[in-house]
């Protein structure tokens, strides 16, 4: 049990819609990262937040955006959904050098 | 650009076998290397983290080794059990940055 929770567990959207995914941690870790994992692949880094500021971004377009709140919980927002956005979205908090992952949100775009 | 490769992509073995999973990375300037386990449709569970200054780490039946100079890590699973069935992923943070670059994973099936 990592103490990292994500909501919702599953989500179905249609192309062009917008979605918000949420992540929270019981540990109080102040660094959170988001990853996208397509079926059969390893997770791909989207971006990282540290103390409410974006602290690095992977190769994802601006329609992927995020927020981190004072309690270190975080949101991932995706606008103008595309079919290829269908994936498992994972958030992770950093404790020391170890990344602790949540259970993920399965997003399906129809 | 750091790339991580895992071999084999899939493995099916009878219970009780000792296993070796391989991970290779192209840039040896890594801060550490982490092995994860992922059950189908679930999140990742951290198994072992090896710092760049270390050669290996052990946890129960798991042993991970790291050879930075050759860009390789191995995860050794002793006396495999059906409960070990999962996908095993290795990941490195490039240049000390806290994001992780993952391999595609090795899908392991241990049958009774």
How many alpha or pi helices of chain B? 0
- Most residues in contact: chain pair: A-B, 29 and 24 residues
Report the major sheet of chain A.
7 strands, mixed
Q: So what's the overall shape of chain A?
A: globular
Query: From N to C, what is the helix and strand string of chain B?
Result: EEEEEEEEEEE
Number of helices of chain A: 0
Basic shape of chain B: globular
* Mean pLDDT across residues of chain B: 93
What does this structure look like?
The complex is a heterodimer of chains A (110) and B (112). The mean pLDDT of chain A is 92. In chain A, strand 5 and strand 6 (53-57) form a beta hairpin. Chain A has strands at residues 4-7, 10-13, 19-25, 31-37, 44-50, 53-57, 64-68, 74-78, 87-95, 98-101, 105-109. Chain A is globular and about 40 Å long. Chain A has no helices and 11 strands. With 110 residues, chain A is mainly β. In chain A, strands 2, 4, 5, 6, 9, 10 and 11 form a 7-stranded mixed β-sheet that branches. A 4-stranded antiparallel β-sheet of chain A has the order 1-3-8-7, with no helix packed on it. With 112 residues, chain B is an all-beta fold. Chain B has no helices and 11 strands. In chain B, strands 2, 4, 5, 9, 10 and 11 form a 6-stranded mixed β-sheet that branches. In chain B, strand 6 (56-59) and strand 7 form a beta hairpin. Chain A binds chain B through residues 2, 4, 6, 31, 33, 35, 40-45, 48, 55-56, 58, 88, 90, 92, 94, 97-104, 106, and chain B through 4, 31-32, 34, 36, 41-46, 49, 51, 89, 91, 97-105.
